[in-house]
Amino acid sequence: MTGDGTQRFGVLTEMSGFLLSLAQAHVYRLDEALDTLEGLTTAQLSVLTVIHENPGIRHGEVAEMLMIKLAYMTKLLKGFEASGWVERRSDPADRRAIHLSLTPAGQGVVERTLPVLLAHDAARPNGLTPREMGQMKRLLAKYLELPVTEQP
Amino acid sequence: MTGDGTQRFGVLTEMSGFLLSLAQAHVYRLDEALDTLEGLTTAQLSVLTVIHENPGIRHGEVAEMLMIKLAYMTKLLKGFEASGWVERRSDPADRRAIHLSLTPAGQGVVERTLPVLLAHDAARPNGLTPREMGQMKRLLAKYLELPVTEQP
DNA sequence: TATTGTTATACTCTATAACTATA
DNA sequence: TATAGTTATAGAGTATAACAATA
C-alpha cells in the first residue's frame, strides 16, 4: 500500500448512515476472526439470544426485533431446529402463529458462546476511551429507540 | 403483530457490535426507500465519492478506506467503467498500480446524488436530538479513527 | 519473495413475490 | 380482506484461493 494517509472521506464523515455502515464493517471484519462461537455467526447468536430472553416469542416478533426478513428467519430456524436448538409449537388460539423456545441444548449453546462474544465485544480494538464507548452505546440504543434494559 | 412491547434484548444492548449492526440494518432499511440515487446503492455512491475526493487514488486504497474486498472492488469498478463514470490509468512508475478518477459524467452523478443522500441522512428518523446526533457522529468517527476532516 | 490487481466459487443476507393456512 | 409463515429466485456483498504481472 503506497497510501500516504492523506485520503479524504469528504462529506461522508458527516453522514450517520455512512459512519454506521463503516463501523459495522469494522466490527464484522474483526468478528470473523472469532472462531470460538461453535460455528455460529453473530447474527445467528443474536436470534438464539432473543429466543433465550423471550421464551415463547413468535417467529415474526424475533424478525421484527432484529430487523431480519421473515423469509430468512424461516431458513435460519430450520437450521436451528435441525441442530436441535430451537423448538417450535403452534399457538392453539391462532394456529397460524408459531412460538419459539430453546431446547436444553440450545440454552447450553447460548450460555457457552454468549459470554465469549461479550468479552470479545468489550475487548474489540477501537479509538474510544471506555467512557466514550459507554456514551456511544447509550446513544446507539437511544438512536434505535430500544426498550431500556433494567438489569440489576 | 401481537407483540406487547415487552420483548427483551437482554445483554445484546450492552454489546457495541450488536448495536452497530442493528443501527446499520435500520439505516439500510430506510435507505432502500431512496429511489432518487439514479440506481446507485449507498455503497456504490461511497466509492464514487471517495474517488471524487481523491482523484488519482489507487484501486486498493479505495478498498482499504471503505473496507471493501479488493475482489469486489474490481467488479464495482468494471460496472462504473461500463457506465462511463470512472477512468482507470496505470501508473507508469509501477505498472501494477491503477489510478482512478471520475469522468465528467461521473462527477455529474456524484454532484447530483450526494446532496440527495446527505439530506436524506440528516432527515432519517431516529430517537436522538440533533445535539445527540452530532455527538454520535463524532464518537463513530473517533471509534473508526477516521482522519479529521478540516472543512472550512 | 512480496505486492497489485483479476477471476472464479461458495456463502450470507436482503428484496420480492407467489403461495398456504388461518383469522 | 388481512395476517403468519413458507418457498423460490435474484441480487449485493463477503471470504477465499488461485492466478498473472510487476516490483
TrEMBL record, chains A, B:
Residues 12-145 form the HTH marR-type domain. SMART domains: HTH_MARR. InterPro entries: HTH_MarR-typ, MarR/SlyA-like, WH-like_DNA-bd_sf, WH_DNA-bd_sf. It comes from the Bacteria. Pfam families: MarR (PF01047). This is MarR family winged helix-turn-helix transcriptional regulator. It comes from Psychromarinibacter halotolerans.
